[in-house]
Each structure stands twice: as C-alpha cells, then as structure tokens.
Amino acid sequence: MPNLFALTPYLAVAVVLLLLAAIAWRVDDWGRDWNTNHAELRADSHDPQLRPVRVAESPRKAADRLTAALAGRSDWSIVAPGQADDETSEVDRTSDEHVVPSGETVRLHLTHRTSVFRFVDDVLVTIQPDGEGSIIAASSQSRLGKGDLGQNPRNLRELVSILRSELSAYPKRGPTLS
User: Fold this and answer.
1) What does the pLDDT look like over 62-95, one tens digit per residue?
2) How far is CA 99 from its chain centroid?
3) Neighbours of 139 (CB within 10 A)
C-alpha cells in the first residue's frame, strides 16, 4: 500500500490543475475576459444573446414581470434605489420601491451573485418605450477585480434568456425578441 503522505504533493498539484482547467473552460473570449470587468447589451453585438431585447409590454409591466421572474432565483437580487451595500440591498420583491421610473423609462438595479466564490456583480436594466412595446437594455459590472473571466457577459445572457422566456414577443410588425 502506498504511503499517503508521499502522495499529498501530487494530489495538491492535481487539484490546482483541475481548478485552473475549470477556470480556463469558463473563459469565452481570451482577449476580453482577463482585462475587462463589464459588459452591456449592444445592438451591434456579434452575439445575438448580447443584444437589447424588444418586448410587447409597457416599460412598467415589463419591469414588474422581470422582477417577478427573478423572485425565485437565489443568485439574483433586486436593489432598492439609493442602496449599494450587498448585505442590505435586497428589497421586498412585492413592493414597487425597486422600480425607478424616469418619465416612461424604467430603471432597475439588480445584483447577480456567482455560484462558487459568491462575487457580486451589479446589473443595471433600462426599459424604454419603443412603439407599441418596450426595448430592454442592460449592463453588468463586477464589483471586484480587473477581469471577469466572462462572468458579466454570462450574467447578461442569463438575463436575456429570462426575458425571452417570461415576456411576450414584440408586435408582429416590428422585430421579435432580438
């Protein structure tokens, strides 16, 4: 039987290599992910999942439906206006104090917490009227670090996926959930 103490350095090296491989596996864009800690939905994005979303609802109704969709997700929180502390920022999801109307435009401040290290990223959502519906734009910013290893684009892809599954398609005469 081999001596377990003699194998300890090899096990430590194996664990470190596995962690590095897991990090490398998550990196989507090697040129971006090491030195950028923010992302935004842009109409000219090469990735269709990173473009603003058009929906049939009014800005207020879209905000209400989005917050309801996020209510059951432990990794997403809604931040009350004027609060940025990640310990006290979650608000009662049944109240309207998370919605900041500006004319017809609605702004939401969300946070997304990563699954392993529990890092907090701020996600700002702007919902503007657009013809018979609304257009939803968002940005995601890491609170810590120089690079995000692709987490902020993943936050926005997840948000777009939630929007597409929970909100109605844009009216037929306009583009669908782009």
Assistant:
1) 999 999 999 889 999 999 765 555 444 444 444 4
2) 17
3) 17
Phi, psi for 96 (deg, rounded to 5): -95, 5
* Amino acid (1-letter code) at residue 92: D
pLDDT digits (tens, 9 = 90+) for 15-46: 998 888 876 766 666 666 677 889 999 999 99
CA distances to 49, 103, 159 from 46, in Å: 9, 31, 17
Phi-psi region of 57 (alpha: psi -120 to 50; beta: other; left: phi over 0): beta
Q: Which of 94, 118, 122 is nearest to 108 (CA)?
A: 122
Report whether 101 contacts 22 (CB < 8 A): no
The residue type of 26 is: R
